[in-house]
TrEMBL record:
Transmembrane segments: none annotated. InterPro entries: EF-G-like_DII (IPR053905), EFG_III/V (IPR035647), EFG_V-like (IPR000640), EFL1 (IPR056752), P-loop_NTPase (IPR027417), Ribosomal_Su5_D2-typ_SF (IPR020568), Ribsml_uS5_D2-typ_fold_subgr (IPR014721), Small_GTP-bd (IPR005225). Residues 7-240 form the Tr-type G domain. GO terms for cellular component: cytosol; ribonucleoprotein complex. GO terms for molecular function: GTP binding; GTPase activity; ribosome binding. Keywords: GTP-binding, Hydrolase, Nucleotide-binding, Ribosome biogenesis. This is Elongation factor-like 1. GO terms for biological process: cytosolic ribosome assembly. The keyword Metal-binding does not apply. It holds the Pfam family EFL1. NCBIfam families: small_GTP.
Length: 1034
């Protein structure tokens, strides 16, 4: 029986760029379903799913929320998601709950950056997508396109979206920003319709019925099948044949009554594709009533008659022609029926979906250990199978995934239980009286039947059923207090819920922080983690206005951390409460929630704490020359430990940017590789899918290849300037360097490399070098075995003497001090204690025996470094030398950059550019949107300049421009923070330097130093004399 029920369920989310009409569409689906939650008249105006005050006020959705709808005998769980970048984490939580996705695209605005992001999310979560082209009415009434022009535009959007999907399929996908930038290159020739025949591989094909054309505002929409059915009898063709012919270059020959290609229709005739002639033209005719008041309403009556619609005379007589058109259109092509039929027809039920999604939700794990318990293994496998089959029988193991926790005021909970009994909601389990918020889990049941009152295991992402006792801390037992069906804001209590459903669960507030897997057995793998498009980057420090409220603030922060799936709450090194949010709108909502719901005290919020990095000057051009630096040049910094026994020499060079990028992006993977055993596939690698979405069989190999490719591409791009032989030489040199990676920093995985030094000849005195080993190269598979590359045999020969052997031992022990020194230096650079970025260090260290090079008897009496004092000295010297080396090599500050997409009407271009200029933005591209007066501008804006950007833009352009920011990359600031005029010309321009104001780079550095309490060199009074003379004159 369960099977039958399950086949009638559809779980779908609505995903799109901000403002493309998701919530408006959801309104119509709610109004069109059984239950009368929303009157059709209110649909599209009310925005039912935006039930938070803040959402209604700002008119944007801020969270994903679900509603259980009934359509015919189907249950449809619909999840509306936000489109604003700041809430993109909610898209991930919505996608995990769903099996299908309605991808909306505004027909006027077309594909935007968030469209890329949501398509990617749908692809990663293996959802079945359907395309909804919304706001068709704007093509008619705003852009005033002809039906043929509109057709070309729609075709282009479908083509573009298919292009993005095929990039995922073929694994050629870069990042959202990169693909937006690349998008402008490969534009097609849309004039030539013959080439636009969509091939079989396309994901979205109107002929297949997975593309809908709608106007959510007026409540109408259609797929091709609606028109195919209608014309089938009129044209005497089968509906199936018509459906195929209604899209693409197919024409109807009225004489022969045949569907033909372009050639068949004859060159001279004014034939239009069938989609234009049979679909768009009738729509345009209806809308003409609004546009031209002189067109009488006969058109409407004709439509009413031919489709037998029931439109009241009052609606038709309404003075506002819009009302009449809306009434006719929504009866003729009811939006909810179109979308519901598409969802039911094209999207899989949970049984079909879960068998497809299982590889993403619960990737098959390799079981390496032999000592695992076979019973456990068998059950784990059984659980997986039952999830794969979406087994909803009562005997099946219960498994559910909680994708987020959300807070609901206690008074909002239903007062009656599922049997109508009165329930007492007023105590939150565990933390009674702590707050009047109740935490609910947003969960999807993947197997079995959940019931209220049931006890269940809560597994965190790190749980491993095969490890038994050692992973106890990752599993807890909890009781499910109550289960609710979600109805937007409303909650409907139920006693049980079966696999394939989406529910809210009360009773897990104390057990789950953000997400978790629920299972009735311990022998179950936790679901793989969700993928988030960005991480929270906007950080502020928060303190209560009255210090006495500190306790309330800390409790409030704790609650907020639970209630918001994306916020991050930490305590900084200086003891401040730091809140990290995804962007300004998100931050503002968090602060409001803190003030009004969770902490209820007045707060002080610091200016944003922006992160920077530090590097040295040098772009691609002198990279090859740079290599020489590491190969025995005398350009080094030397430091000696206070006891004089160790001499450290440090050289630094800049890594090729492509290599830095690979290291930056692969930090998770690197972390896994460095911790794990070499060559073994690490389980945490499952999460590594930032750049290659499709699972890679051997991520280590893939990473190794990316690193080599990055280096080679730099040499190749520069080899135009140098001859072939030299290019080859550099290549082999780089390959050698890659075999000498000792450590990465900071925190072992950063984008800075410590190379193993290549000691050439023995030192004249009797000190010996600290050699290091190519530990990371080994892990990455650049070298086979530890040390074989570097350690040469004469080292062994030297060790024949006992005393020297002891010294060698000491040198070997000190290797870790060198690495620690490197880690410390790279985590806090010399400019403002921010981490270093993209640098390669070569640290040579020599230690001398205690008491210098005297005779052997004395050597043997040396004391071991019992308390680690010497080790500490070596570490500090390495750190200082690394920092000094960076200072010496023209240090530069590195800023995080946002990629910014702006849409502006032509008349506001001037003010928009003014705002961009004030924000140090760099324009990448500006383009007029075809057929409209809107400009799309792409730019990079430094994160530090982005606060208040959207507001300023809105003010200066009277709200006509909108901007969307996505974190893009790190970029070195070209200015020299320590600039003083040196050359003749510079002196001419800037004087002797005393009057040079600090440049931007210096200002940024000083601001960070001041914030961190580091000394800042400041001139308090500039040109005192000048000021005095001025004063006298007054
Ligand atoms: N002309 C026209 N306007 C529409 C249509 N659909 C939606 N809108 C308008 O577009 C605006 C945004 O609609 P929403 O439904 O809030 O958009 P959304 O996608 O939910 O936005 P977020 O949730 O904030 O990402 C509203 O002003 C709607 O009235 C349509 O078909 N035609
Ligand atoms: Mg919305």
């Amino acid at each position: 029986m369960g099977d039958f029920d399950c086949r009638k369920i559809r779980n779908t989310c609505i995903l799109a760029h901000v403002d493309h009409g998701k919530t408006t569409l959801a309104d119509h689906l709610i109004a069109g379903s059984a239950g009368g939650l929303l009157h059709p008249k209110q649909a599209g105006r009310l925005r039912f799913m935006d039930y938070l005050d803040e959402e209604q006020r700002r008119a944007i959705t801020m969270k994903s929320s679900s509603i259980a709808l009934q359509y015919k005998d189907y249950s449809i769980n619909l999840i509306d998601s936000p489109g604003h970048m700041d809430f993109c984490s909610e898209v991930s939580t919505a996608a995990r709950m769903s099996d299908g996705a309605l991808i909306l695209v505004d027909a006027v605005e077309g594909v935007h950056i968030q469209t890329h992001a949501v398509l990617r999310q749908a692809w990663i979560e293996k959802l079945t997508p359907c395309l909804v082209l919304n706001k068709i009415d704007r093509l008619i009434s705003e852009l005033k396109l002809s039906p043929l022009e509109a057709y070309t535009r729609l075709q282009r959007i479908v083509h573009e979206v298919n292009g993005i999907m095929s990039a995922y399929k073929s694994e050629k996908y870069l990042s959202d920003v990169d693909s937006v930038l690349a998008g402008s290159v490969g534009e097609m020739d849309y004039e030539n319709h013959e080439f636009l025949d969509d091939d079989e591989e396309d994901t979205f094909q109107p002929q297949k019925g997975n593309v809908a054309f709608v106007c959510a505002l007026d409540g109408w929409g259609f797929c091709l099948s609606e028109f195919a059915d209608f014309y089938a009898s009129k044209l005497g063709a089968s509906a199936a044949a018509l459906q195929k012919a209604l899209w693409g270059p197919r024409y109807f020959n009225p004489k022969t009554k045949m569907i033909v290609g372009k050639k068949g229709i004859g060159g001279g005739s004014k034939a239009r594709p069938m989609f234009v002639q049979f679909v768009l033209e009738p729509l345009w005719q209806v809308y003409q009533v609004i546009l031209n008041s002189d067109v009488d309403k006969m058109v409407l009556e004709k439509v009413i008659k031919s489709f037998n619609l029931s439109v009241s005379a009052r609606e038709l007589q309404n003075k506002d022609p819009k009302v009449a058109v809306q009434a006719v259109m929504s009866r003729w092509l009811p939006l909810s029926d179109t979308i519901f039929s598409m969802v039911i027809k094209c999207m899989p039920d949970p049984i079909g979906a879960q068998s497809n999604r299982i590889s993403r939700l619960l990737p098959k794990r390799e079981v390496l250990d032999n000592g695992v318990n076979c019973d456990v293994l068998a059950e784990v496998e059984l659980v997986r199978e039952s999830i794969e089959a979406c087994d909803s029988s009562p005997e099946a193991p219960c498994v559910a995934f909680v994708s987020k926790m959300f807070a609901v005021p206690l008074k909002m909970l239903p007062k009656r239980g599922s049997h109508g009994e009165v329930v007492n909601n007023l105590t939150e389990e565990g933390g009674a009286g702590e707050s009047d918020e109740c935490f609910l889990a947003f969960a999807r049941i993947f197997s079995g039947v959940l019931s209220a009152g049931q006890r269940i295991y809560v597994l965190s992402a790190l749980y491993d059923p095969l490890k038994g006792e050692s992973v106890q801390k990752h599993v807890q037992e909890a009781e499910l207090h109550s289960l609710y069906l979600m109805m937007g804001q409303g909650l409907k209590p139920v006693t049980t819920a079966k696999a394939g459903n989406v529910v809210a669960i009360r009773g897990l507030g104390q057990h789950i922080l953000k997400s978790a897997t629920l299972s009735s057995t311990r022998n179950c793998w936790p679901f793989s983690s969700m993928m988030f498009q960005v991480s929270p980057t906007l950080r502020v420090a928060i303190e209560p206005s009255d210090p006495a409220d500190m306790g309330a603030l800390m409790r409030g922060m704790k609650l907020l951390n639970r209630a918001d799936p994306f916020v991050e709450v930490t305590v900084s090194a200086r003891g401040e409460q730091v809140l990290a949010a995804a962007g300004e709108v998100h931050l503002e909502r968090c602060i409001k929630d803190l003030k009004e719901r969770f902490a209820r005290v007045s707060l002080e919020v610091s200016p944003p704490l922006v992160s920077y990095k530090e590097t040295i000057e040098g772009e691609g051009s002198n990279l090859l020359e740079n290599l020489k630096v590491l190969m025995g040049s005398s350009d080094y910094i030397e430091k000696t430990t206070p006891n004089g026994r160790c001499v450290v020499r440090v050289q630094v060079m800049k890594l090729p940017p492509a290599l830095t990028k690979v290291l930056d992006e692969s930090s998770d993977l690197l972390g896994g590789i460095i911790e794990g055993k070499p060559g073994q596939r690490n389980k945490s690698l499952e999460t590594w899918r930032k750049n290659s979405i499709v699972e890679d069989d051997n991520p280590i190999e893939a990473l190794k290849k990316r690193i080599v490719d990055a280096v080679m591409s730099v040499i190749e791009s520069e080899s135009k300037e140098i001859d072939k032989d030299r290019a080859e030489k550099y290549k082999s040199l780089w390959l050698q360097f890659l075999q000498r990676i000792w450590a990465l920093g900071p925190r072992q995985v950063g984008s800075n490399i410590l190379f193993v030094p290549n000691y050439k000849e023995g030192n004249a005195d009797c000190s010996i070098p600290i050699r290091g080993c190519s530990h990371i190269s080994e892990r990455l598979g650049f070298v086979d075995n530890s040390g074989t590359m570097i350690r040469d045999d004469d080292a062994a020969a030297e060790t024949s003497l006992g005393a020297i052997r002891a010294l060698c031992m000491e040198a070997e022990n000190l290797e870790s001090s060198v690495v620690s020194g490197f880690q410390l230096a790279t985590s806090a650079g010399p400019l403002c204690d921010e981490p270093m970025w993209g640098l390669a260090f070569l640290v040579e260290a020599y230690i001398a025996p205690l008491g210098g090079c005297s005779d052997e008897s004395e050597l043997s009496t040396q004391q071991p470094d019992q308390y680690g004092i010497f080790a500490g000295q070596v570490m500090t010297s390495v750190k200082d030398a690394c920092r000094a080396a960076v200072l010496q090599k023209k240090p530069r500050i590195v800023e995080a950059m946002y990629f910014c997409e702006l849409v502006t009407p032509t008349e506001y271009l001037g003010p928009m550019y003014a705002v961009l200029a004030r924000r140090r933005a760099r324009i990448l591209k500006e383009e007029m949107q075809e057929g409209s007066s809107l400009f799309t501008v792409h730019a990079y804006v430094p994160v530090a300049e982005s606060f208040g950007f959207a507001d300023e833009l809105r003010r200066w352009t009277s709200g006509a421009s909108s901007a969307l920011l996505v974190l893009s990359h790190w970029e070195a600031h070209s200015e020299d923070p320590f600039f003083v005029p040196k050359t003749e010309e510079e002196r001419e321009e800037f004087g002797d330097g005393s009057s040079v104001l600090p440049n931007t780079a210096r200002k940024l550095i000083d601001a960070v130093r001041r914030r961190k309490g580091l000394p800042v060199e400041e001139k308090v009074v500039q040109h005192a004399t000048k000021q005095r003379t001025l004063a006298r004159k007054v």
